[in-house]
Amino acid sequence: MRILSGIQPSGALHLGNYFGMMKPAIELQSQGEAYYFIADYHSMTSLFDPEARRRYTLEVALDFLACGLDPRRAVFFRQSDVPEVCELTWLLGTVTPMGLLERCHSYKDKIAKGISPNFGLFAYPVLMAADILIYDSNLVPVGQDQKQHVEVTRDIAAKFNDTYGPTFVIPEPLIRAEVAKVPGIDGEKMSKSYGNTIEIFGDENVLRKKIMSIKMDSRTPEEPKPDADRNLAIQLMKLVAPPEEAQRYEERLRAGGLGYAELKRALFGFYWEYFAPARKKRAELAANLDYVEQVLREGAARARAKAREVLDRARRACGLS
Ligand code: TYM
């Protein structure tokens, strides 16, 4: 089984990225052949600062390795180190109906936010389909917001297979219900573009402030809270605290008598502790950037060999030499 996923280098990674994609991906790396990459081509649709792209790419590499991606098990690489994926994007684009792309939520959302659409933004799902199909991927661990893109990938693969004969493996998305949509500090989906993120790594005081500003209702500590399971701090605590501890805080909140400041301080403590080993590993990696670069280069070489094989299969299928 081949498992594949990608992440854009468009800023510091947050708990949504970690629990929605990185953690499941890291857990799956021993279950099959894993291909994980930094989607730097995709970041070009919304980030136009070359220095920032270079910096974020390195940061994502450090984050992923620090969190437990094991380069002896998973093939870890930069998307743009396998330019074959761009050629496959063209091949796939020629069988992709316009309507399929026009229906994509993430495209429509970005336009609604006032981003002026470029061709890259519109073609974004086709490049993503190429990412997935070029490695004969079976399973794609992602958060809920990427589900439609994996469905589009399946449609494009089926259309190509119908048109030119069996060529591509049809992939399945893997979305864990309990972390499909990790909420941010305002209760909306945690997302860089909403400014509501809690980063995995960063300055302790800044992160403490963010956690202390998590949105709560205005009830007094004394009031019992029957909806304690829907409290944002409790939801996040369930991700980072030992289950029995999270349970204990939830029950205390439900019964009444637990103040929100105490609850958030406890959440910060669990969160800080949860990432302590990764923080230590990240500091070590940051002092050894040559190693990180070597991991990405070796990953790219392995990924490229597979990509070449599938691209050649697709070229032959559609009558290119
Ligand atoms: P990106 O970089 O926006 O996000 C990376 C991963 O994090 C997940 N995620 C979340 N999951 C749960 N709750 C949240 N609040 C949350 N926020 C983000 C995303 O669902 C994603 O899985 N287009 C992709 C990158 C990509 C890709 C691919 C992924 C390019 N090619 C091929 C899979 C396969 C993206 O922008 O993810």
Automatic annotation (TrEMBL):
Entry-linked InterPro entries: aa-tRNA-synth_I_CS, aa-tRNA-synth_Ic, Rossmann-like_a/b/a_fold, Trp-tRNA-ligase, Trp-tRNA-ligase_bac-type, Trp-tRNA_synthetase
Catalytic activity: tRNA(Trp) + L-tryptophan + ATP = L-tryptophyl-tRNA(Trp) + AMP + diphosphate + H(+)
GO annotation, cellular component aspect: cytosol
Motif placement: 'HIGH' region: 9-17
Transmembrane feature ranges: none
UniProt motif 'KMSKS' region: location: 189-193
A GO term for molecular function: tryptophan-tRNA ligase activity
Pfam families documented for this protein: tRNA-synt_1b (PF00579)
GO biological process: tryptophanyl-tRNA aminoacylation
Residues the record lists as binding ATP: Q8, P9, S10, G16, N17, G143, Q144, D145, V182, K189, M190, S191, K192, S193
EC annotation from Swiss-Prot or TrEMBL: 6.1.1.2
Subcellular location(s) of the protein: Cytoplasm
Keyword line: Aminoacyl-tRNA synthetase, ATP-binding, Cytoplasm, Ligase, Nucleotide-binding, Protein biosynthesis
Keyword ATP-binding assigned: yes
Residues at which L-tryptophan binds: D131
Classification via NCBIfam families: trpS
Role noted for this protein: Catalyzes the attachment of tryptophan to tRNA(Trp).
Assembly notes: Homodimer.
Family stated for the protein in its record: Belongs to the class-I aminoacyl-tRNA synthetase family.
Protein name: Tryptophan--tRNA ligase
Species of origin: Limisphaera ngatamarikiensis
